[in-house]
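== Sequence entry ==
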Amino acid sequence: MKQLTGIDASFLYMETPEMPMHVAGLHIYEPPAELPGSFFHHFRDFFLSRMHLAPVFEKKLARTVLELDHPGWVDAGEMDLDYHIKRATLPAPGSFAQLEQMVGELHAVPLDRSRPLWQITVIDGLGDGNVAVYSKMHHAAIDGGAGMAIAAALFDMSPEPRKVKPPEPKKPTRKPTIEERAILGINDAVQNVMRQQLKAMEAIPQMLGTVTDMLLPKKSESGGGLPGIPDVLAPKTPFNVTITSQRSFAAREMSLTDAKFVAKATGAKINDVVMAICAGALRPYLSERKALPKRPLVAFVPISLRKPGDAEASNQVFGMLCPIATEIADPLERLQAIRRTAGDSKALAGTVKDVSPKDYTLLGAPILLPGLAQLYGRIGLADVMPSTTNLTISNVAGPPFPLYCAGARILALYPVSIPVHGIALNITVQSYLDKLDFGITADKRAVPDAAKLADLLVAALAELKSAVETMPKPVQN
């Protein structure tokens, strides 16, 4: 059994019926011409021939004895593939709005923990003749970097699928007795606690040095005395509420070339432009509802800790808090403010992430922590508690070349992510080819009109591009 790290297991402990902890993708496929039979059966056969390339597909959770420590992954054995690979058909006319609604409904359904924690739904009936594939996997098993590794196993770079080695026959293994599991489980739990305590003690000098560096006055990019420490609390918004079990979803594609044009002209990074697009959409969205705070909204921005070449299916993420200047009306001034604060926030996150724990052990965590998560949602603490962030904004770099799966060309890679109690809105972006594929995932009560917010994202990039085009040209000597 391979035990989950504390970070991986946290996604299990946080999960409640209102807060499923799976991430997903909505991929749009252009089916091969003159394909005999249905694309669903074609895709299913193809997937089964590749499934062994990503071992996570054939693993399920196993609890430790007495649930003293984090669970682990074990071989799933025989699998019910009808549960894991499903088919759905949109009613006529098969519009994109109907697809978004179906994805929101599928995304609200938690995964069955007695099975491997993934599920794929092939959706046909689209009016344009394309096919959508919605695939979800529990966040306990995967982060964005590991997702790209799985994609590398399933996707090809040409319509002709590459040949792969068939799976090797599995060797039978002896299952430990109940007595052996009990002894191993208790010993492992005690050893894990001792190991984590020793690591914490070893990290104390570095942590004290980091705190001292943070408190000493420094020159930051934004000109302040501290390295970009944001306000302790974010302003209250309609997104900072207890969420329900229903989801809204919307997806839009935008020009990566336009985003690069804006970045180059303003000295910003693509990630800065992405946050500026989100800020440019949220400002009118909240203004119309008379809910735009005078202080800037604060975004939680995940940061990958994954080293190049690391394809392990586990979570290796950190994060930073970044004010996104929603109080500024001018789009270019807003972008420059984001560029400064993002630079400061990333510098601050860089000083903290090296001393932050990458794992933890807490005796009885599988019992204690889920109870606390359920209590937090049941009594509605997110409705009254102050928050340090208003929404999540994540930007994942994807391939600049076309991908194929089961001989079908992939047209779009829309992310579908996780809203949580107190942070009901998640905007995740995946670059692909010359596009930025935006996915808005939200609590349906907090954001019932995700499509309207998605349209405002498109308008925000157009506004930035127009503002750059009208910038004064530098004087030539």
In short: Confidence is low (pLDDT under 50) at residues 196-204, 206-230.
